[in-house]
Amino acid sequence: SPAAGYPFPLAPYGRSYQPNQGSDDDWDESSTVADEPGALGSSYPDYELSLSSRGGHMAGHLHPPGSSAKSSATVSRNLNRFSTFVKSGGEAFVLGEASGFVKDGDKLCVVLGPRGPEWQENPYPFQCSIEDPTKQTKFKGMKSYIAYKLVPSHTRQQVHRRYKHFDWLYGRLAEKFPVISVPHLPEKQATGRFEEDFISKRRKGLAWWMDHMCSHPVLAQCDAFQHFLTCPSTDEKAWKQGKRKAEKDEMVGANFFLTISVPTGPGAGLDLQEVESQVDGFKAFTKKMDESTLQLNHTANEFARKQVTGFKKEYQKVGHSFKCLSQAFELDQQAFSAGLNQAIAFTAEAYDAIGDLFADQPRQDLDAMMDLLALYQGHLANFPDIVHVQKGALTKVKESKRHVEEGKMELQKAEGIQERCNIISFATLAEINHFHKICVRDFKSQMQHFLQQQILFFQKVTQKLEEALHKYNSV
Amino acid sequence: SPAAGYPFPLAPYGRSYQPNQGSDDDWDESSTVADEPGALGSSYPDYELSLSSRGGHMAGHLHPPGSSAKSSATVSRNLNRFSTFVKSGGEAFVLGEASGFVKDGDKLCVVLGPRGPEWQENPYPFQCSIEDPTKQTKFKGMKSYIAYKLVPSHTRQQVHRRYKHFDWLYGRLAEKFPVISVPHLPEKQATGRFEEDFISKRRKGLAWWMDHMCSHPVLAQCDAFQHFLTCPSTDEKAWKQGKRKAEKDEMVGANFFLTISVPTGPGAGLDLQEVESQVDGFKAFTKKMDESTLQLNHTANEFARKQVTGFKKEYQKVGHSFKCLSQAFELDQQAFSAGLNQAIAFTAEAYDAIGDLFADQPRQDLDAMMDLLALYQGHLANFPDIVHVQKGALTKVKESKRHVEEGKMELQKAEGIQERCNIISFATLAEINHFHKICVRDFKSQMQHFLQQQILFFQKVTQKLEEALHKYNSV
């Protein structure tokens, strides 16, 4: 039940919510609160801030924008710290209450890599493009939606999916994998869904999401995702079957942890304090990452806005003033200045063009930066819960050791708790490892892209000025 | 006497005023109204708008800044259109009332060049540098002033002059030469005269003034200027002698026009309508020039301000945000990102440096542009009166023709009027010619300088970014 002052019940860790499961009814996006501040039917160049993704992608929740999201997230940490551990099934697992048969194909393997535990590589890595957003209609044109073409590289069979399919998939994954940071989808939006800029931006967000899905060894290979990627769009029956199969997955909650297979034998055990230390360090890292990505996103948004408005305006005012000057020289009857007025007029055009270059530049560099930051803010919003499941397990181990010393628990039972905590630790450390790798990969690539685009931009500006300077040679 | 609503008596065309002549008393600059808006004790980066120079350099007048200057100038055209012609001595000359002996050395020759009448070239062209502004004191340190070192290229003897000497010279020239556009001095200023930025800017303004003085065949060779340039600074007696000699010059007013020597013989006469047409065309040109240089000056001022504040701020905020991001990566314990955090930190510094480059850039390019525009606004403020003297003469010719037709004037007298108007026309056209030449010379040079500096700037920015991009190669 909600705590006083916090109006929204928080879903279990998986953040699933009834509407994603079960009913195949047309889910009308317009009934969802538009939770993107400033994005309602917005036309370019209003840049979206991904503030609401910080609160996590609360699929289906009436999730108010801005500060409430933040305070809800804070409350979730304070009140549900324990509950997340419980609700994810982590506690039940650690206490030995889970049991079931795990098929080989369902096993998630953690191996020991050069930098410690990591998810076993996907033996069949693949990618999937998101292309060609097209407006489709249903009910004789009464209902419209956007469909995207997906082309997975391992099947090369294109399928078409709409946002609600992505959203369904997200719900399944977030529910199933409490130790994994499932990337957040781009925001829902009630209005302006058919605006070209919105569609373009959403497509990019989905492409990033897809890249992170395919890059994760566990997520890439999971059944629900494969169903999403491969079920032919025309076969509604097959879709529903796969959907229900995923929704009936028994290896969820406490049972999920049974599927995790970890290294065994000498040298494979994890030192408790070492794990705690690493997890605490990671917590500090994600906190700082969260603050700095938020700040950078905000700065990028502002910088983009300034270029589109202020910078463009300043350079074009200079151009306009040069134009007036050239027009004055045209009035020179003695034609002393025939070449000069043309050169000055050309210079005026150069500055006007530079203004346009500034206005167009954010699309080339800052937009991509902000898309990436939005995706990472989603991940960073996931980690507190992942960390809490781990900490809950560690706490259980400490408690069990104390109970043994106090004679309240049998040693064998405590050892079982430690062993099962060990499994969670391997998984968490593997996930941390994965996050670091993908973080470095993405930020290196993004910074390079950003700088390359900035360099190209300033080179273009320089070139315009050099062309203008050249005109004075013949004066 | 002042017209109703216009509080200031307008001086005769020469704009001289008693205090510049006669008394050698220490003229306390602080008794002059500080007529530079926003420049009172201002420290960088408050850019001065040379608005008040539009009203002309009213030496010694209590000349309020801004709009009053503008309305005074307008009134002077309306009410004194006739008076300028009269007060300059132009009317008296045209009517044949001037007489006197003109020494060869005092003759100002107009010749026929490829583009029509022009001032005869100075056979001994020279330049003069303005260097080394130094604070001097008098009265045992009770009074301070800035002295500049002048080194004329034809004497190579350095002399020291202070602002009041320049001001005295200006007064002499403006009074003597009604057909010539005497460049205006940089503004007087009551406070902040010893600020480094002010001194530096004033020195540049004086250098521009000096360049235009030396570039003008008539001004360069005139006695008062030569006295100013060559009289040894230590010889106070010689200075006063030269000063009084200049102030006693008899070839002023109507007599001045006697010194103008024009081409004679067949093909040397000027067609009245042609002259009128050229002068009208020039009037349209100067009007448009005046508007556009004012606008460009204003735009340049704003552009400079924006670079020093807004642009710098935006780039440095980006740098700061990148810095925070790199600090987050430093918290990555597994040192996945050792190279990355350093590359991002380097990128942060690059953007910080780019912010500083923007802030420093106006000193490199826009400042020089604004200095030039201020000088030209002074010239453009002179031309209405020059044009009016010409038009007054043309009017007299038309009147005289009518009088002859009406039998009110003897033909011989009318012919004398035409001949003397012809002299004024030659001088005016020569001055117009000179202005066009110097205009093209200066604006070509200034635009080239501006563009070269802008190119250098953007190249520097690009280089910083390329250095930063390079850092990612080793990540």
Automatic annotation (TrEMBL), chains A, B:
Annotated ranges, domain PX: 126-236
Entry GO terms, CC: cytoplasmic vesicle membrane; plasma membrane
Gene3D superfamilies: Arfaptin homology (AH) domain/BAR domain, Phox-like domain
Transmembrane segments: none
Keyword terms: Cytoplasmic vesicle, Membrane, Protein transport, SH3 domain, Transport
Pfam families with a match to the protein in the record: BAR_3_WASP_bdg, PX
Region (Disordered) residue spans: 1-46
Subcellular location(s) per record: Cytoplasmic vesicle membrane
Superkingdom, taxonomy of origin: Eukaryota
CDD domains xrefs: PX_SNX18
The keyword Transport is assigned to this record: yes
GO process terms (BP): cleavage furrow formation; endocytosis; endosomal transport; plasma membrane tubulation; protein transport
GO molecular function annotations of the record: phosphatidylinositol binding
Similarity annotation: Belongs to the sorting nexin family.
Protein name: PX domain-containing protein
